[in-house]
Amino acid sequence: MSEPVRLTLYLRSGCHLCQAMLGQLQALQAQHDFLLDTVDIDGDPALETAYGELVPVLKHGEREICHYFLEFGKLQQYFSQA
User: Fold this and answer.
1) Given 15, 17, 36, 51, which residue has the most CB atoms within 10 angstroms?
2) Which ranges does the record mark as transmembrane (predicted)?
3) Stated pTM of the model
């Protein structure tokens, strides 16, 4: 049995887009076997530089799946390839 895919959501507190994507991803966990890590970029200069105005950013490892909004089609395609 393979391990579930581990996704990372880069976000910042007080970001309504971030909270929306987080809620959508948490709801999808009931349908797809994946783990979700969240990383608040605030307070980490390297992450603030890398992601700044792009948040929320959903990644698997170094590969970006989507940012700003959860793109269900891209995520479904990613799951089918993983």
Assistant:
1) 51
2) none
3) 0.91
